[in-house]
Amino acid sequence: MKLSKSEEELMNVLWEHEKAFMKDLLEAYPEPKPANTTIATMLKRMTDKGFVGYKLYGKSRQYFPLIEKSAYFSKHVNGLIKNFFNDSASQFASFFTKETNLTKKELEELKKIIDDQIKDQ
User: Fold this and answer.
1) For residue 7, what is the enclosing H or E element?
2) Per-residue pLDDT tens for 47-86?
3) What 8-state DSSP symbol labels residue 88?
4) 70 near 31, Cβ under 8 Å?
5) Most CB atoms closer than 10 Å: which of 10, 21, 24, 115?
6) Pairing of strands 60-65, 52-57
7) 3-state secondary structure of 51
């Protein structure tokens, strides 16, 4: 199951807040703020998809994420690698390092991350 771009934006707010009421979510948006009904509709869809849960406090709902941010993005990166890079992480890494104009310092940082992962294996 996947979130739309606008749902991902709302999900990012929830991940940042961990728990939030509707008013908290609306306050997090820049002007012009979306309508309450727009946020409510997205929250309903995200709840139906299993990404968001809520706890009732009287008539108010406090929303919270049901999936961790890292798990969500890990699934997407793995899907990207599978669908666009023939399930090859090395093809993805090659594309990523060549097409994103990384600085030498950033490439060295990536190399260190990879070297550290190799040592831990």
Assistant:
1) helix 5-17
2) 999 999 999 999 999 999 999 999 998 888 888 888 888 8
3) -
4) no
5) 10
6) antiparallel
7) coil
Q: Which residue has the tokens 């948006």?
A: 29
Q: Tens digit of pLDDT for each residue in 82-103?
A: 888 888 888 888 888 888 888 8
Q: How far apart are the first and last CA of the chain?
A: 31
Report the SS3 class of residue 32: coil
DSSP tally for the chain: helices H, then strands E:
6, 3
d(CA 28, CA 62): 15
Q: What tokens were used for 18?
A: 């961990």
Residue 110 Cα distances to 16, 30, 37, 90, 103, angstroms = 26, 34, 43, 13, 11
Please answer whether residues 10 and 39 qualify as being in contact, where contact means their C-beta atoms are separated by less than 8 angstroms. Answer: yes
Place of tokens 């009421």: 21
